[in-house]
Amino acid sequence: MDIIYYKDITNEFLKNAKPSVNFGVHFAKSITKDGITYRVNKRNRINIRNHEIENAYWFLSIMGGKIIILPEIASKEYIKMADYKYKPVKGKAYFIEEKEVFGNDNSIIVGRNCIYHKIKDSKNQSDVILLDISNVILSKLNLHYYLNYTFKFLNYSVIVIIKKNNRLIGIYTNKKRATPSDQAVGPLYK
Predict the structure, then answer these.
(1) Cα 78–81–86 angle (5° rounding)?
(2) What is the mean pLDDT of residues 30-57?
(3) Beta-carbon neighbour count of residue 18 at 10 Å?
(4) Would you state the pLDDT for residue 8?
(5) What's the CA angle centered on 79, arms 47 and 64, to 5 degrees?
(6) Is the CB of residue 97 less than 8 Å from the CB of residue 126?
């Protein structure tokens, strides 16, 4: 790799972590998006997929705070919603989209486009993505190659938290992105 298109912000991101102050995982009763409040009911349901609950608890074990699991909003037009709303111990709340990486046909081999599409498909849901790579074989070298490929072609800012099993691999963002403290008033925190 000649040009690196991403940077590791793990230490910066974790500096405000308070894992000992954990308020747990909760289910939303309603959510407001674009000025409209949607109540959880038969139409707007919370659908748990794969390891969303386990990954929410894992995230709280390293960051502290509170996670609210959000519903899928079924309306005339499909409204994309993040999986979680995260409320840190200190600072503003923000949305997190949880994605799990699988190879083609749920194989353990994964290509660079798989990670790229997992991140790109989350564009209108959240600027923070929790990417769980526990179900695939991926060397550290290939992971960084795939991340570089992904960030090279993304035309918007995103923070990617990578988890494998119960280990934090790292937290990465676009190379041109401002620091997390600078973003407190930006689009990341909604």
Answers:
(1) 170
(2) 82
(3) 12
(4) 96
(5) 55
(6) yes
